[in-house]
Design a protein that fits this description.
Blueprint: H1 2-12, H2 17-20, H3 52-66, H4 71-74, H5 82-92, H6 100-116, E1 131-132, H7 134-143, E2 150-154, H8 166-172, E3 177-180, H9 183-189, E4 197-200, H10 205-222, H11 238-261
Parallel strand pairs: 2-3
Antiparallel strand pairs: 1-4, 2-4
């Protein structure tokens, strides 16, 4: 009987390490009520009421994925690669239109040269620059299609109806064209905020080879009519893909069951 009582007392009083030994780091529970401890950082992006234009952009992107997109609009999703874009913009940056200060300096130099010379003046050749503006480029394609080296169209023009017909016009007049990412990038090239499209009429001799090689690489992707007749296949969301997979699994299980019974 004595032995049992000793064991019972040992179990009843377990060793408490914290009560016997003083701890360096004492627990300080935080209180997250108003005016107390600082609230922890939370991801509140789901609870944010986004601006209307952001919601429209996102809804539009989802609709383009879910619906079967026609070839003329689906064509604008096929942009040139990063390396091709780098090659194109390295050429185009040499033909940026002059700004106000550059134009002022050029006119002052021309006026000074005219004042100093007494003989007849030779006609000044126009500087080679990138052409921009939708109406201007449309007129150039219709009237001087043979002179245009390349046309670059932005992929994110809104509304798309502004430029959706331009690739067909380029193919009709056999003008080499490509679709690049970013109307803002084209805009910075011509000293504007944005630009729907730009065109290059002529280049210097040192850039001719690079431009010809770029056009040869790009032409099969854009100027070929067969390549631009593909419809955009719809992409399903996460929920619908899981449902479809579950249905497929059930169908395969039923088919296997029927085969085993037969």
């Amino acid at each position: 009987m004595v032995r049992r009582s000793v064991k019972a007392t040992k179990k009843a009083a377990p060793k408490d390490f914290k009560s016997k030994h003083a701890h360096l780091f004492k627990k300080k529970s935080r209180d997250f009520r108003i005016g107390r401890a600082i609230q922890p950082k939370r991801d509140v992006s789901r609870f944010v009421r986004w601006p209307r234009y952001v919601r429209i952009q996102r809804q539009k992107a989802i609709l383009k994925k879910r619906l079967k997109v026609p070839p003329s609009i689906n064509h604008f999703t096929k942009t040139i690669s990063k390396n091709q874009a780098l090659t194109l913009f390295n050429i185009l940056k040499h033909y940026r239109p002059e700004d106000k200060n550059e134009k002022k300096e050029r006119l002052q130099k021309e006026a000074k040269a005219k004042a100093e010379s007494k003989g007849p003046q030779q006609p000044k050749t126009k500087p080679i620059v990138v052409k921009f503006g939708l109406n201007h480029i449309t007129n150039l394609i219709e009237e001087r299609a043979q002179e245009i080296k390349v046309v670059a169209i932005a992929h994110d023009v809104d509304p798309i109806e502004l430029v959706v017909w331009l690739p067909a016009l380029c193919r009709k007049f056999k003008v080499p064209y490509c679709i690049v990412k970013g109307k803002a990038r084209l805009g910075s090239l011509v000293r504007q905020k944005t630009a729907t499209c730009v065109a290059l009429m002529d280049v210097h001799s040192e850039h001719k080879r690079n431009l010809e090689q770029f056009v040869q690489n790009v032409a099969p992707l854009y100027n070929d009519a067969k390549a631009n007749s593909k419809w955009g296949a719809p992409e399903f969301g996460i929920k619908s893909t899981h449902l479809r997979k579950a249905k497929e699994r059930l169908e395969t299980a039923e088919a296997n069951k029927k085969l085993s019974l037969a």
